[in-house]
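A note from the maintainers: we've had questions about how concatenated examples are separated. There is no special marker in the raw files; a new sequence line simply starts the next protein. For clarity in this README we add a label.
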Amino acid sequence: MNTTISTAIAEVLTEVLERPVTDLRPEMRFDRDFDLDSYMFVQFLLGLEDKLPGLRFDPETIGQAGFNTMENLVQHVEASLARAEQAHA
């Protein structure tokens, strides 16, 4: 897993959940393992946007079901950041 993205995810989860989050694994689920409801998940994604320059989630396609595992979210973020980088190249 991408260390920069994983670290950002842990930091934002810590802020949203108001408790330390460590030892993230690819199979972890945001709803089950962190008990994020839809409101908290949106807060989490907005926090990630603030933490990772160039990252933007499309409000039309944003949804917890689409990338509810750590692995799916990291893959989505990597692809989004790569597209943003290409657009600015």
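[label: protein 2]
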Amino acid sequence: MAQSHRRIDSTGAIAPPPTGIKVGALSLFAVLGIPLAVTYSIPFALASIFSNTSGAGQGLSLGVLNLAIVIPQMVVSVASGPWDALFGGGNLPAFVVGAIAAAASGVFALTMLPSPPPDVPVTKIESTRSTTQP
């Protein structure tokens, strides 16, 4: 599809895409950016909320979360090239390792992380209001 819309100008250079293609690409990325922004911001918001309610330091909690995100990215960027070359240059081995790591992380998260404290029941709040009001 992109090849059929490619244009070459009089100097032989590739001309920019038509306006419709630019608008379509910009619209697609704008719509896809909304869930991506949520994906980037929600973990940090939840970490600050949970660390604040538990009495832990927010800075330390956010720093640990940031390291938990950055260190695996650095390991993958350094090791994925040689890992792919070891298996003939395809990306499939790296995806298999990623899938195994994601499954292991899910199991660890469900078994090792502490559960957040339960919410205060609404009936308890209502009973304290009724005893304090005449």
